[in-house]
Amino acid sequence: MIVVLLGPPGSGKGTQGERVAAALGVPKISTGDVLRVAAKAGTPLGLEAKAFMDRGDLVPDPVILGIMKEALSAPEQAAGVVLDGVVRTVPQAEGLARVAAEIGTQVDVVLLFEIADEVLVSRLSARATCGACHSPVAGRQPGETHAECPVSPKGTLVRRVDDEPESIRNRLRVYKAQTEPVVAWYRANGGNVQAIDAAGSFADVEARALRAVGR
Ligand code: AMP
Q1: Ligand 1 atom having least distance to the Cα of 88
Q2: Whole-angstrom Cα distance, residue 163 to residue 49?
Q3: Is residue 50 included in any domain, yes or no?
């Protein structure tokens, strides 16, 4: 089963996507995570992507299509995959449909996390991310230690460069201009788009997301 997560930054799609992936027993892939690891390691891909990411702009489609192709053809993805932030433009949605068809599969469901802008800005500016495992950590402040980190128990919580206010505003602008049309594209092309109210408690949103994938 291929599940595409759509929703603005801060809508909780990454964390909820982990739960959806666990319930389905499939991996979750986030292009944001792939690109951050590459940027930290200083690979050519990472260096190309970093400037776009720091500003909150989108990395060019060909880079994303390359990651998508590699991810979908990996054997551990045979049972399916949850794609987090992987589809952010109409050409990427078209590219994913093509790549999926080449390997004899398709996008089964699109989970659209919907939430008001004011909630997003306050959530993102308070968001702390582990510098070692890169997971967002709810309810904690940058500077604290991420004792539960699976990579290093000394992982320190940081604020992502793109969670600074100017970058947040730009990411929301980019979402509206480039990613919202993807929702219309899926609806026009027979996609199974399930809108999820992403406001409310974590458990409530999780229950809505799991229901939408039949769990
Ligand atoms: P995220 O962690 O999903 O918020 O992604 C962080 C940043 O990575 C985005 O603001 C973009 O600069 C870049 N990025 C991640 N996924 C994509 C994508 N599918 N298309 C273009 N840029 C992306």
Answers
A1: 19
A2: 16
A3: no
Residue 32 lies in a domain: no
Classify the C-alpha dihedral 20-25-26-31 as positive or negative: positive
List of residues 6+ apart from 23 with CB closer than 8 A: 210, 213, 215
Q: What range defines the domain where residue 7 resides? A: 2-26+79-212
Which H or E element spans position 5?
Answer: strand 2-6
The Cβ-side half-sphere exposure at 152, using a 13 Å CA radius, reads 10
CB distance 171 to ligand 1 below 6 Å: yes
Report the CATH number that the domain containing residue 120 is assigned in CATH. Answer: 3.40.50.300
CA distances from residue 192 to 4, 53, 106, 134, 189 in whole angstroms, order as listed: 10, 30, 11, 30, 9
Q: Is residue 31 part of a domain?
A: no
CA 90/CA 61 separation, integer angstroms = 10
Distance 127 CA to ligand 1 centre (A): 17
152 CA distance to ligand 1 middle (Å): 25
Cα–Cα distance measured from residue 148 to residue 155, given in angstroms and rounded to the nearest whole number: 9
Flag whether 182 is in a domain. yes
pTM of the model: 0.89
59 lines ligand 1 (CB under 6 A): yes
* pLDDT tens digits, 33-71: 999 999 999 999 999 999 999 999 999 999 999 999 988
- Report how many domains make up the chain: 1
